[in-house]
Amino acid sequence: PPPVPAPEPAPAPAPAPEPAPAPAPEPAPAPAPEPAPAPEPGPDQNPPG
Q1: C-alpha distances in angstroms, 9 versus 4, 47, 49?
Q2: What is the CA radius of gyration of the chain?
Q3: For residue 46, is pLDDT > 70?
Q4: What is the pTM of this model?
Q5: What is the pLDDT of residues 15-26, one digit of tens each?
Q6: What does DSSP assign to residue 44?
Q7: Which of residues 19 and 41 earns the better pLDDT score?
Q8: Angle, alpha carbons 15-16-22 (nearest 5°)
Q9: Cα 1 to chain center, whole Å?
């Protein structure tokens, strides 16, 4: 019988490189407003008695 020719190997499809997702920019945290200091009670606001 005639020699059977070797089958050519099918070329493996090159996988398409997926683009790396760009990292979402994190929003800068808003600075917490400092609480205003409570006014010290004077003699009028805190009468003795």
Answers
A1: 15, 100, 103
A2: 39
A3: no
A4: 0.17
A5: 888 888 888 888
A6: T
A7: 19
A8: 130
A9: 67
What are 20's two structure tokens?
């790396």
Round to whole Å and give the CA distance between 17 and 22: 15
Dist CA 39 CA 35 (whole Å): 12
What are 32's two structure tokens?
């917490």
Task: Please state the rounded mean pLDDT for residues 35-40.
Answer: 78
Give, as one character, the DSSP assignment of residue 46: S
- Whose structure tokens read 């003699």? 43
